[in-house]
């Protein structure tokens, strides 16, 4: 965190000054480790075994927060009899179809009822919920993200003694029983005494009086089991009572300013603003059918129709009427996954012909950088908007494939447009941080030359396209022509007013008055709201995100600084900070509580709960949506009001996190016969995307070292914002790899000399830093060396170097379609890499030696 | 000569600005750099260069941990040192190290290696150790892989000495003492004589090769004048760099050291804070976690003009005796 989020780390230092213990788990010793109380190096790609071991410690030593677990989690819920765990099936769950490599998740559901997920794959149960099998979506690969609710009449069966053999807590206990300290040591390379120390520090600092927070970044997400990494943390934090309470939580450290904002108001293919799922291509599906299938029946997702209708009104204004289903048919439909990596594959196939890159440099920053470039070389047109001529804008004239002769400039038909972009100081707008806090930033200067903001680009692009289509009678053009596109502009560049966009996102009623809360949204078309969770950010017509009341002038929650969604609540699900009766679990950790005299929730934060719903409230029979939540259903977005230790619906790869080896791993899975995540997402075979043998198969020894990529404080992502800056470039002037003295000795690598690093996909060279900070580990009883690779470099800019992503395959998490850049296997050898065709030849020779073909590594 | 003038050159001087002729000056301002909370982000280096428009001065991978800045100079007014050590940080949990492996020995082979052949040269066959590999010199992996490691980080800067030799030797008046007690060099007056460079006991001030003029930290004199703190202190996310009245900073530092000692970090010490030291105390002082030499700081700096009065006395005496001899020679001239 100090390494990649140094500004945020100041708060860790403040906590440390007040006595907080900081544990840092990372294969390398970073600037964070330097300030931590405990550094735990582990093998990259083994975190579920590590965290699962902690879950086992918590359960077998009865260290969980029992009252919290019983009241607020699904620990007491009884599961169906036909559910089979990985313990029963040697590493897979019930419902696996080996031919389609997908799970049918029906056996994962609660006994006697069915719940919908609040996020993730919400279209999974489309057929059951709509009673019609008319989907044209690829089978069971639902990508929708939707809402929750139990089937009418079906409250799940509970055992509050937590002893029923099929209750979640007991299933959990069995699932992790073999994740012992001995096993953690063998799989992760973490010595048992060190592991126990972590377990003790964590459990001693959790409970009524104390809370612990987890912070993670893409070291967790970028795996073929990335979602399950974070799920394991969620299981732990729910068991320990660390959710919804001050000092608790699981904090996703975002990789870029406002990445949180770009999922809230998404740049993702499968989400609409506010996490409303993008509809799938079902035949004859109307608004009601969509809501019936994807909305929750209990909890706030029960109001999804209001959120969606208000969004459609924001999109299409007066054109959206009750008669035309509020233009629901204008929304695009999903026919499968359209993630960034599938987009590359369809570029290679020739079906994707145009590409916008706004502040993104896939030729350096995305896995398998070569395939990224080959995909772009097969486009009709490419638009790059960035600060400088990044590699993704110039690969056609000076990219690595030009040097190797695999591409020739004169053969490339892609028309490339480069448009300079404005920096954040040159435009107004909001950043949304990981705590969902929106903070307004003001424009300081006009952008130089032809640089313009992305808002300017998008608005004027839409304006011009609409102009060109104005005379069209083609119904296909109606969604564009009917858009409410009347944004006010200002200044000499006709910059759209970002505050007006924020006001549209906030929403207004039929009279045009700004809304104050999503509770006001209606499903009859009388309200418009661009993102229901952001409703209130422009309450009273005031830009609440621009508030900057200093911390010392308000209470410690400081909710007059900026504005947090939803409803300016600073800690989500904070009803859980009080016990079922509404009293704080402890004075020390009081946040919100029930004031019986005034009949409302009160406290330091704004309660994330209906203000006047008493703790003893029980819903009437047949209630739906928020009405169906009881006074103790703290997790108000969830279909059952509970935190999920076990996920009955919404994940494609299992209800409980399970240790699988990475796609490319020198080690076998010690826990199960199943080596890898059986439903990991493998794109169609491609000669430049070969996988490596694993687990002692012949050829495994050709790539004996585990490698991981990461960032340095001095640079930013793929380097577009830092490698061109002399003041940053001089601080880390060259691409380097980090190796231990032992590995340096084993391979003859010299400090500051050159090393060549090879995978089945590519070869790169890097200067060598020999350092104790990347320690060797003892894994599976033998020494394992790891290779650390910062991924910031590419051939352009002021500071140049090879891109680590040349080495990395496309093998994706099946839920999020995120690549596995954080754990893979390589060889390393001294000296510079070959140039020209010889580089391609070297990789080919490695593949031959390892016996790699198109089937290698694609086993279930 | 009075005591006052003596104090201009050596020993404690509680009123630096007053001694330089300011009447009613503001309190002496300075830096306290607490390296125990430095996270090595180098924001100070970048903020300093941005604010003061200092040129980039070289893209060189040094191999000295993450320190590619190397040291203070004409175009580097803040420098973060990175020191990797096999020692547990106070408060960190001790474990078992692998003492017999020395990364610094590996670093010692820097530049002596045959492993940077030209592009296209065939690299060594996998599995066979290339000639010159220090395979025997480095021992096998420690059984549990644990390292007891600490990574010291420290942001260095001009010390703004109580007795600043650079200023004393400057013939043009380019270097001067400000009303805040800091030492500033004026680039429009400096004639590039370079006397100040060897005068600095810390090796801070330096000449730019392109124009020969001397440059160093001004403690952001232009910002101080309008009530702003220096750029580096403003940018520091963890308050490792603190700016304020020197007296307050010294009090704060004493508390910090006491706290660290109580926590078992017995190596913690202040550097440059003592008005009785060889430069009369620094306007920019440090809390270090190891010997100053570890950070590349001189252990016992002395203002190089300390002996100037003596030297002048000797010179005057010598001149007098020469004159006396000369006079005597006239007196004794035989008629």
TrEMBL record, chain B:
Main localization, broad class: other
Keyword list, A-Z: 4Fe-4S, Iron, Iron-sulfur, Metal-binding, Repeat
Coiled-coil annotated residue ranges, if any: none
CDD domains in alphabetical order: FDH-O_like
Subcellular location per the Swiss-Prot or TrEMBL entry: Cell envelope
Matches recorded under InterPro entries: 4Fe4S_Fe-S-bd, 4Fe4S_Fe_S_CS, FDH_Electron_Transfer_Unit, Formate_DH_Fe-S_su
SUPFAM superfamilies, per the entry: 4Fe-4S ferredoxins
Ranges of residues in domain 4Fe-4S ferredoxin-type: 29-59, 149-180, 181-210
Keyword Isomerase: no
Domain of life: Bacteria
Any Pfam family: Fer4_11
Protein name from the UniProt record: Ferredoxin
Organism of derivation: Streptomyces djakartensis
